[in-house]
Structure prediction request, 305 residues.
Amino acid sequence: MFNDLVIHKNEEGYSKSLTLPLSAYNEKGASYYWNIYYAMCYDHPEYFFLLTGDVPRIQSSTEKSDATVTITYTLKKAPAGEDEMIAEFETSAEAFLSAIDLSASKSQIELAIHDKLIDLVTYDYELNSMSENEKSSALGSTAFGALVFSDDGTPNHAICGGYALAFEYLCQKAGIPCGYVTGIANPDAEDENAAGFHAWNIVNIDGIWYETDLTWDDFDIDYKINNQKVRNEMLSDTASMNSLRHHFYNVEPDKMRSLPESADTLFKITDALTINPRHSSYHLRGTYELNKTDNISMFLNSLLP
Prediction:
């Protein structure tokens, strides 16, 4: 029903209604149906326009009788330029995939999408420094920011949500089942203050589910290593750099919850100096039991394998 509203978003006065037994509505609660709406949004990263600007884009009205509840939903009128942005997004996604051999195996296609996307996208540190409300409704938190441009017009700038939604959409278009995961994550398990809200992916390859974090695989060596000599030494170690770019790639979900430091990402700079940018880390999905994220995220995560 929600998807149908989006398909007809440019039709004036188009609405859809849902009639439920009053007992069922009272049992689920009004927020349950909003959760379903957002589940639809995050299953369709191409609907980036529902997550930005005037949020929420959907409006509802409720009529109750003694036995039933009828909820009527409409979408607010699209702002000027929305259809042009949608077309630009689709063009960018098609151009991205045109350079990938979609006749290859699913594992080869997924790896190609992963590598090409982290080469394309730059992490938006300025957006990440803003408030949660500002971040949540920004283009950089959507697939559009990653594949086209951010709110200030900078090409291919995004934070974790943008990386994850872009990866989800590109995998979907390539026929690879992929979902959007949120929760708390810590890049350094020994630093109690390093944990924060995060987004990553779950993907199915040959019947097996893996978790992948493109944001953390996109190691920004210029930002994180301030010594040019050390940067040069790291870049010359192609094997360790490759491991660094794939440390969070296709990890079994139970291992992603507590991922140990790896010797594969250890760089020997001099006889006396070694650097390992990947410490022991963890990714914890936001669940009703964990209760460390918002209600929508907990609902979305409850639907994932």
